[in-house]
Specification:
The chain is α/β, with parallel strands linked by helices. The chain is built from ten helices and five strands, in the order E-H-E-H-E-H-H-H-E-H-H-E-H-H-H. Helix 1 crosses helix 8 (about 170-180).
């Protein structure tokens, strides 16, 4: 079966990927089936899981919600440890691996996605790594990581699975523009690491998202706790 597994966090990138996979499935030369997987790993911004569920339901894609909350007990990160403050963009510029990095999170999650793929006979798994991930110090979002991971997966003696990263060469603005073409409602996505009522606007995830919308010439529909000068930079606001 030419099926596809999409891990969806409820964030901007993974939501665009899910919409893309579904669009491909609707074409005769696309995927036969699309499956989504979300992960609760004890992240402080677990409100993103609500959007993962909403997007999957909207697209009529079956969603497996996996409980990985015990990961927070062993993987120290500001995203899983509330005793550690989420690093702001200004504090981590040039940092090769910030406190916002969750040790081996992507490898654990993608391994589970590959297990799902093998179980249902799917041939593809998507990884939502984008160009900005390498720039932000996430080694498990790099091109080198994708090559190494696929080398490992290729050792499977029976099931041929390819882990793809359609966004890895795209800027955030390009991903947003692509999402607009696919009909993504970005108000139903969550990116901020803080997980509060409003996005903080200062963590690396928020910074790259805001810059992406500015470069794409679109106002982000998500509310922020700091004032974003949309009118100053966007003529259509």
């Amino acid at each position: 079966m030419n099926g596809c597994i999409v891990p969806i966090s409820g964030g901007l990138d993974s939501t665009v990927l899910l919409h893309y996979a579904v669009k491909q499935a609707h074409h005769g030369d696309g995927y036969d089936e699309v499956y989504a997987i979300s992960f609760n790993y004890g992240q402080r911004h677990k409100k993103e899981l609500k959007f993962a569920q909403e997007q999957s339901k909207l697209l009529n894609v079956p969603l497996d919600a996996i409980d990985l909350t015990d990961l927070s007990k062993i993987a120290d990160s500001s995203l899983t440890n509330t005793d550690t403050d989420v690093a702001k963009t200004r504090d981590v510029l040039g940092d090769a691996q910030t406190v916002n990095y969750v040790p081996f999170r992507n490898t654990i999650m993608l391994s589970i996605c590959c297990a799902k793929a093998e179980s249902v006979g799917a041939s593809a798994v998507f990884h939502g790594a984008a160009q900005v991930d390498t720039q932000a110090g996430y080694w498990d979002g790099s091109r080198e990581y994708m090559v190494a991971l696929n080398g490992l997966v290729s050792l499977n003696r029976k099931n041929r699975i390819q882990v793809g990263s359609p966004l890895i060469n795209k800027t955030k603005a390009e991903i947003i523009a692509w999402g607009v073409e696919l009909g993504v409602d970005f108000s139903k996505t969550w990116t901020c690491y803080e997980g509060k009522k409003k996005a903080c606007g200062e963590c690396p995830a928020c910074s790259s998202r805001i810059m992406g919308f500015l470069e794409a010439g679109i106002k982000d529909p998500v509310p922020y706790s700091i004032k974003i000068p949309w009118k100053k930079h966007l003529t259509t606001v």
